[in-house]
Amino acid sequence: MSKLNTNYLNLKENYLFAKISEEKKKYIENNPQKKIIDLSIGDVTLPLTDTIISGINKGLDILSKKETFKGYPPSSGHTFLKEEIIKKDYANIKLSTDEIFISDSSKSDICHILDIFDTGISVAMENPVYPVYLDSNIIRNNNISFIKDKETFLKSNPKVDIIYICSPNNPTGDIWKKELLKKYVDYAIKNDIIIFFDSAYESFITSSDTVHSIYEIDGAKKVAVEFRSFSKSAGYTPLRLAYTIVPFEITLISSLGRKINLNTIFAHLKDIKYNGPSFLSEYGIYELYKMNNLDETKKNIKYYLENVKILSDYFVSTGQKSDSSINSPYIWIKCKDNMDSWDYFYYLLNNYGIIGSPGVGFGICGEKYFRLTGFSSRENTIEAIERLKGSI
Ligand code: PLP
Questions:
Q1: pTM score, two decimals?
Q2: Measuring from each residue's beta carbon to the nearest atom of ligand 1, which residues come in under 6 Å?
Q3: How many whole angstroms from 196 Cα to the centroid of ligand 1?
Q4: Within the chain, which residues score under 70 in pLDDT?
């Protein structure tokens, strides 16, 4: 009989979103007359912007004609889009198109890149954080340590191979300040560590004391891989598009002590595992960037951020949120009266008909915390707060 990779049995069943929707369904069945407000969603709700739609139509036109039709794309995406990405997202950073790998999803890239590394390596990540980092390392039997306090973590002189940095963090919305990132980059250079910098929410940053790209930090190109996604920045969750930057400078060591270039191996991995992103998805973003119409997607982000502000102002006033900074589509609050996060879930659902995400689903350090999202409609966001205030 074929043998299982038994590391899969070590995965903790991530029942967070499945359980949330099960509880939502149950509540609706038992309370058919009540309106639920769902603030648990980690997905965009506004439609695609006009320029993106026009780009997709232009792409379709190209594919509709014999003379212009294109088949498989290059496995790292088309150069025409990479050039626009360099111009618009990395205007002050020196990058080559061969350092950019366009794909359908940051989630897949974050998981696949681990294939390049030996199994049983040591990794460090924040807690709470995007659960994919944890699961993708469990299935490779890697040693996982948690960065509970990012200011003091380096003082313990950690001996790890990879450090994951999620900034702004999902779920907490925390950003890594520039000086702190500089310390991590310097430490990584000194200790031959690779940083995986996930900036899926960079377009939501409003603070000025952080970076949009890790490459704004001196020396980062020697050690950092950056993951960016169009899912939330351009409302692309149904279309799928993302990219990963793997600088030429990063090297790995083989078991025979030979230095190997990470970019070269990542390009091989892409050729083996992937046949390139959808041309239409690429063309939508290409048009947006080429026409310089990023204000359209920024308008949508502003809408979500205004929802977050409405939520944030209320929870700052109740003392459940300590400051009013907003750098992500989520707010992270302390559960009322020190409740466990699932107890608070039922409290909000049964008393106010509001659904959110229990913090413990993002890691053990998320216990007693709760995530609410700005991805709902303005009306629902306002109504949720009115319900909490007891005014309706
Ligand atoms: N990284 C973080 C921190 C996320 O929260 C998400 C999605 O929610 C992703 C990556 C996944 O991005 P994509 O939709 O491109 O797979």
A1: 0.96
A2: 42, 105-107, 130, 166, 170, 198, 200, 229, 231, 242
A3: 13
A4: 14, 392
